[in-house]
Amino acid sequence: NTQPMGLLVMAYGTPHSLDEVLPYYTDIRHGRPPSDEQLADLIRRYEAIGGVSPLTDITRRQAEGLAQLLNADGGRPVRLYQGMKHTSPFIPDAVARMYEDGITEAIAIVLAPHYSTMSIETYHQQVRETAARLGGPSFRYVRQWHMEPRFLDALADRVQEALARCREPQHAMVVFSAHSLPARILEMNDPYVEQLHESGDTIAKRLDLHHYMYAWQSAGRTREPWLGPDILDVLRDLKEEGYSEVVSCSQGFVADHLEVLYDIDIEAQARARELGLHLVRTRQMNDDPAFLAALRDAVRRAEREAE
Ligand code: FEC
After folding, report:
1. Is the CB of 295 under 6 A from ligand 1?
2. What pLDDT does residue 1 have?
3. pLDDT tier at 297 (50, 70, 90 boundaries)?
4. Rounded to an integer, what distance in angstroms lies between the CA atom of residue 111 and that of residue 20?
5. Does the C-beta of 256 come closer than 6 Å to ligand 1?
6. Are 116 and 185 in contact (CB under 8 A)?
7. Residue 191 Cα to ligand 1 middle (Å)
8. Predicted confidence band at 303 (pLDDT cuts at 50, 70, 90)?
9. ipTM, interface predicted TM-score of the complex
10. What residues does 148 pair with on adjacent strands?
11. pLDDT digit string (tens) for 263-293?
């Protein structure tokens, strides 16, 4: 089939300027505006990383790079559309544009490796609802891609590279982290936690890591319990257990954005400094061609599996 297939690349999205932080935060909170204090705190975090997050730019480079690879591999050509969860271009608008452009068949991928009903599924739901309302396009979904071989290769390279920056790599603790979610997912038979362990354990085995563990980061500021332990508490515990070096691998994220540039590079680094720990963060994937090749493989795999 040489008819172009729609390629919908979705990501979290970030405010395009500080003026957009309020509508963005309100959208994240399902339409409930944040308090003045919460808003000021989020603006402060964006200011600390330079005013805006590089996420918009990185997402665009990732999406365009992926489309380029797909249009060069001899498979079915694609036409790229981008949809963001919390900012423009919003997912339903992207699906509507695909419909207006006459796209009948499409494939959707979210730029986050692990599946959860509270993360990836909420993107897919928006696509499904919009396409059902309009009467098209018909979508296939890449559900998760955390075990894509080239993704694991790229992740292993980054952990190894970070360990090489430690003074005593064999004694450093590798902490694999991902965005925390409300702890109630544990009662929902959700695969998120298991998938994080699956990719992390694979890397640990491949690199023969003797010291590695899992932590959560960037938990929401709500009253309900979130998955733990939080990476900041883990740093304190590791210090007490006698560790002096830690490698932080935020394997649930694929770009340099607020949750990495602030939560790890500023907040966790400050905690590490207080404790006298040497903290090294693994490089994010961004638009590394080796990573984009993993996404290409995931798209082609989902296309084949649907046939
Ligand atoms: O650079 C940027 O500006 C955007 C960074 C960003 C990414 C991201 C990814 C994920 N989130 C996930 C879940 C939640 C849940 C809540 C929540 C809240 C926030 C807030 C900001 C934020 N998230 Fe996010 N997330 C990013 C940014 N996130 C800002 C609001 C302030 C705060 O709490 O810090 C809680 C919502 C609620 O209050 O009910 C849940 C998950 C991911 C990874 C998967 C994905 O990319 O979709 C899961 C990037």
Report:
1. no
2. 73
3. very high
4. 22
5. no
6. yes
7. 19
8. very high
9. 0.94
10. none
11. 999 999 999 999 999 999 999 999 999 999 9
Give the number of other CB atoms < 10 A from CB of residue 189. Answer: 8
Beta bridge pairs of residue 232: none
Strands, sheet with 5-11, edge to edge from the N-terminal-most edge strand: 78-84, 5-11, 105-110, 138-141
Atom of ligand 1 nearest to the CA of 178: 43
Q: Using one digit for the tens of pLDDT, what is the confidence trace for 55-94? A: 999 999 999 999 999 999 999 999 999 999 999 999 999 9
State the pLDDT confidence band at 306, using cuts at 50, 70 and 90.
confident
Strands 173-179 and 245-250: parallel
Is residue 213 exposed (0-12), middle (13-18) or buried (19+ Cβ within 10 Å)?
Answer: middle
3-state secondary structure of 91: helix
Predicted confidence band of residue 222 (pLDDT cuts 50, 70, 90):
confident
C-alpha of residue 41 to centroid of ligand 1, in Å: 14
pTM above 0.95, yes or no: yes
**Which atom from ligand 1 is nearest to the alpha carbon of 45?**
29
Q: Which atom in ligand 1 lies closest to the alpha carbon of residue 261?
A: 1
pLDDT at 221 (0 to 100) = 81
Going from the Cα of 119 to the center of ligand 1, the distance in angstroms, rounded, reads: 10
**Would the CB of 119 count as within 6 Å of ligand 1?**
yes
Q: Is 14 in the pocket of ligand 1 (CB under 6 A)?
A: yes
Distance CA 56, CA 253 (A): 14
Whether ligand 1 lies within 6 angstroms of the CB of 251 is answered as: no
Q: Is the CB of 222 under 6 A from ligand 1?
A: yes
CA 301 to centroid of ligand 1, rounded, Å: 28
Contact 260, 45 (CB under 8 A): no
User: Is 217 within 8 Å of 234 (Cβ atoms)?
Assistant: no
DSSP 166-193: SSSGGGPEEEEEEE--BGGGGGTT-SHH
